[in-house]
């Protein structure tokens, strides 16, 4: 395992996810399990900086397991998405566009967990950047519910049309 980790080109994983936990336990479980998996593989977490919802759960799982956490959050969202104690390093930025740019700049790959419109927008932006040749970083999407099937279908069919 040590040899495999040393050869990995991934050191920092950007995770897009919701500032809400959603209504299904599987979303919360997925965020915690992914955080634990990042720690077990010695991968740093780069995320949207919030301490609430799925963002809070994954950051707590990584930080609690001894992993490095970098949260990037627009100043306008700090009072809304940062409640209580923050974990890891928090980098305030001017706006949502800068948040996405910094998250991309500071990561080697992307994982999208369930989320709302913000998560979808982050996901579509990095897909667009890849299509435009701005980055060539891999992206994984976690399909933990049927509501994502329409999005997967759209993303799969769009390049063909």
Task: Give structural notes.
The chain has a 6-stranded parallel sheet with strand order 4-3-2-1-5-6, sandwiched between helices. It contains 7 helices and 6 strands. The chain has helices at 2-7, 25-40, 53-64, 78-81, 96-105, 117-131, 149-157; strands at 12-16, 44-47, 69-74, 89-93, 109-112, 139-141. The chain is of the alpha/beta class and 161 residues long. 32% of the residues are buried. The model is unreliable at 1-6 (pLDDT under 50). α2 (25-40) runs parallel beside α3 (53-64). It is globular, with a radius of gyration of 15 Å. It has one domain (11-160): Rossmann fold (3-Layer(aba) Sandwich), CATH 3.40.50. The longest helix is centred in the N-terminal third of the chain and has 16 residues, at 25-40. 45% of the residues lie in helices and 17% in strands.
Shape: globular
Largest sheet entry: 6 strands, parallel
Kindly identify the CATH topology: Rossmann fold
Strand order of the largest sheet: 4-3-2-1-5-6
Task: Specify the CATH class.
Answer: Alpha Beta
Strand content: 15-25%
Named at the architecture level, the CATH assignment is: 3-Layer(aba) Sandwich
Query: In total, how many domains does the architecture comprise?
Result: 1
Give the % helix.
40-55%
The low-confidence parts are: 1-6
Give the H and E element order.
HEHEHEHEHEHEH
Evaluate the radius of gyration. 15 Å
